[in-house]
Amino acid sequence: MVYTCLQTHPISSRYNLPIMKVQHKYLVLIYAVSFVFGDEPHFKTRFDYDEQLLEKMIRMEFQYEQWEKRINESLEKMEKQRASIHTDLEVLRNEREEFDTHVNETLTDMQQLSELKDAQQLSKPPHSTILFRARKVADYTLSTENQIIIFSEMLSNVGGGYNSASGKFTAPVAGTYLFTVSLCPIRGKSIFFNIVTKEDVVANGHTYDVAGYLCVSGNAIVQLAANDVVYVKSTYTPDVLLQGGLKDDFDAKSNYFSGVLLHSI
Description:
Subcellular location: Secreted
Shape: rod-shaped
Keywords: Coiled coil, Secreted
Structural class: alpha+beta
Protein name: CAPR2-like protein
């Protein structure tokens, strides 16, 4: 901006007023020229400010939409994960219930098995070993067919299974048993015998019209239930057994019946 100072003309003062008016016009003109052609002042108008504010709001709205989109996507992923976790928890809960049921059933079965074993232990006889051995036949002249041969002298009877009065052995417990019999007929006579259990012949033997003194024996391994009966019988009428005093080498000791429990069930 240019400032110009006009001096007062030295003429009479009556000329001062017109000169001041002329100076004022020049001053206004100089101001106008300096405003048009001089440097333009830098400032923002109201319109520029509103425009920039609108652009900023538009950018912020766009960013907000992007943020909202990302947040919604994150929430959607979290919801899917939550649903997946809920499903997994349901599966685990069902598997846990099945496992608990299986464990309870197993414990029940184990308890029942233990009670069954205890009951079986209580049902067993006091003797863990069962065996017997008997000799000395009650009737050496077996005059009746299918006569039970009774061994009257007991050498051992652990478990009390053999009855020396009836000649029968009754199994105290179920298991596998071994039975052995030895019979010696007198010279010139014979012996036919069967080992019988549950009315079935499980072993047999015989000698017939021997010239000297010969013993015959037999054995059987059988599976018995508790209270099954085993005995020896003669199957030929003229059977005559050797008895003590007739021959020292074949006395009453050679006629015997024995049995032993091999394995209990």
